[in-house]
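Need a sequence for this fold. Nothing fancy.
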């Protein structure tokens, strides 16, 4: 199956075609491009800091790092109903939650990573999972990042990059609850995730 970004409630894949011009910022991080020469594992610790956001790292998950804003209380937690009762309609495999547009997603990445960094990550088949907690209107409330622990090109991504991604994704990304899934509005929050392949991002350069 061709790899590119996708959104899942449990499983969901949607396509897109329009490609706007997104500007890149900053100079290449040589620890990302060539981690063998300058390597920094930013996430082998419980707390890491961006410029204004502090992240808690769960590195007890074997092959994964889960990196979450220390103020998060929803993303990664079980979905519960607003009235506190037990859900009567289970979420089924194949239930789909649509993203309003993929443009803000890849623009956030293209404005955070330089082309050199994206190409280096793509060559190493790297991807970054983005988890969201959203409200009943599809607005993003929280963001969490998950990456493989054995990928130096990934754990050399500075937390400042994740902070920029979080800020942009929370302010620009939204989701659409399909008509056949209106029962989700009964939940206090809804959790979804996207697996963002850097090979897909490279195709947007």
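Here you go.
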């Amino acid at each position: 199956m061709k790899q590119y970004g996708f959104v899942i409630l449990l499983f969901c894949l949607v396509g897109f075609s329009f490609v706007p011009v997104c500007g890149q910022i900053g100079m290449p991080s040589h620890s990302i491009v060539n981690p063998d020469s300058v390597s920094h594992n930013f996430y082998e610790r419980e707390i890491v800091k961006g410029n204004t956001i502090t992240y808690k790292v769960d590195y007890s998950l074997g092959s994964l790092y889960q990196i979450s804003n220390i103020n998060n209380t929803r993303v990664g937690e079980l979905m519960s109903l607003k009235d506190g009762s037990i859900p009567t309609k289970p979420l089924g495999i194949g239930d789909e939650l649509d993203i309003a547009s993929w443009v803000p997603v890849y623009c956030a990445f293209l404005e955070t990573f330089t082309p050199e960094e994206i190409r280096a990550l793509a060559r190493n088949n790297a991807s970054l999972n983005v988890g969201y907690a959203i409200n009943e209107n599809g607005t993003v409330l929280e963001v969490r990042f998950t990456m493989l622990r054995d990928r130096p090109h990934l754990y050399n991504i500075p937390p400042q990059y994740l902070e920029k991604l979080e800020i942009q994704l929370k302010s620009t990304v939204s989701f659409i609850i399909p008509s056949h899934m209106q029962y989700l509005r009964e939940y206090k929050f809804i959790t979804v995730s996207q697996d963002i392949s850097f090979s897909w991002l490279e195709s947007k350069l």
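For context: The chain has one domain: 7-14+39-202.
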